[in-house]
Amino acid sequence: MDYLDVVTDDTGGSPIMQGADVSTLRRAADLGARFSYADGTQGDPLDILKSVGVNYVRLRIWNNPRSGYNNKDKVLQYARTVKAKGLKLMVDFHYSDTWADPGKQFKPAAWASHGISQLPTDVYNYTYDVCNSLKAQGTTPDSVQIGNEINTGMLWEDGRVVNNNFTNLGLLLKAGYNATKACNSGTQVIIHTARVESGARWFYDGIRSQGVQWDITALSYYCMWHGSLSNMASVVSDMRSRYGKPVIIAETAYPYTTANADGTANVVTSGCSGYAVSQTGQQANFAAVQNTARNAGAIGVFYWEPTWYAVPGNGWNPADINNSGNEWDNMAVFDRNGRLNPNIRWLP
Fold it and tell me: How far is it, in rounded angstroms, from Cα 150 to Cα 200?
């Protein structure tokens, strides 16, 4: 079966999102990184990913990172490559010059002095500008994330949720939603938290109480941090029924080795019960996540940075990309030589 065939779910005709976040791939390509199929034949990494089922690419965007990567210009460039391969595109707005996640949501330097009276306008203008620039070059995003893993808000401190007060966060999310729809009404707006293990209702009830609209509910699930598959399934099912919107797992991954391929320690150094830390274990865990999420009603699963094997100069730190290493090299689905895990598959 052709892996580009459109598969739909049974609740609303939404295409199944067999996704990969390949945000470091542009830098890898510029450094001359090589990728190969499981049999050792070299190939384009997006073609290789398509051959094992990927149909959707996620790219993060930082406002003005010191590295010069994952900024607007680089996202526009790589979006052309993604779309030319027949893949769908999600743009993941961090609204920061660096990583945004549950532990940090730093304002971009250009907005550092802006308060809540100005920040919704910043979010609207920036989101619209990026979306419209993508649209103008013929690569309109199929979906966008308004914030990344915003468990307790974004653009801290102004957009942080304190004492269950979602007012400011609501203003920011509505600005992002409105900008996206003004750019292209068909682009789906995703709101993403890492709250699989606890607190999902608290968060989504909170933003809903502020009148925030969104199209897809997104969660992160890493078994080493977010608990059991059965709990993940319960949360996915609950989110789907409670809010009446499609649900995706926007991030997941699993290690294929405990070995470290560069001078920077790996962030994950062990696996989860029932799954070996091996290429076979990686495949088994990813398959279990996909099947569990889908059986619970999710319409898609994205693997986070499957192509980020250790390549000198493609470091994790946007302030020092040349000299920082890769904390994720043992989580990639390509080994330290750029060769694909022969077992890995994105499942329809």
Answer: 11
